[in-house]
Design brief:
It contains eleven helices and ten strands. It is an alpha/beta fold.
Length: 273
Amino acid sequence: MVPALRLNNDVRMPVLGFGVYQIPDGEVERAVHTAFEAGYRAVDTATLYANERGVGAAVRASGLPREELFVTTKLWNTEHGHDRALRAFDTSLAELRLDYVDLYLIHWPQPGQDRYVETWRALEKILADGRARAIGVSNFQIPHLRRLLAETEVVPAVNQVELHPHLQQAELRGFHEKHGIVTEAWRPLGLGPDLFGTEVIQTVARKHGRTPAQVVLRWHLEMGHAVIPKSVTPRRIAENIDLFDFELDSQDIAGIATLEQGRRLGPDPDRLG
């Protein structure tokens, strides 16, 4: 069983979910089915990924009670603004063919457009209407979050951001902790081999008899992050959830802390849009 984090509105979210970025819609149903068989109960999609239909089909075909599954999707950048966001959510729900989602996120703040506050108010309405059990953001920086806290009513439940040992985001994580926002990591394994080959990760992996990927994912859990690794390979899907029978010690955590480079692999949220 994957442990759950309690969000700031008391909704429980599995600490580890299955990411489906870049999995084509025609293949995603099989991948999600494999993940569910391996024990995952959360799946993370987005309008951008163009696979909401397949994700919804996998949820419906799983035979699992809907209340045992946690489905996240995200609003894309072209749909900022109050009314456009409401329509975009309707489209996502129709693609998923679900009655509600568990978490709905603004995918990027796009500060150059300066519409994320009014967009957030649309998400507040979606939450109030019961069509999302929780709402949050993705790729928001501290100034963006401060504006939401100052100008709107609902504190985001989650901020999903690029986070891995080469980009540890300590200041942002501290802000989240202060305000009751869960930190969720996308691209949690960084560049993979580039990170896995470091002496620190290799040493910790040998010490615990685990793969480098398992060590990095366990580091996220030790740090209190939710995490959404992605794979289409059944062996790796199973490997990525096999994290709950070992722990890293303080020496391991201290070693991984030395890998910080401030190295962003994705876009800069202050510049995108």
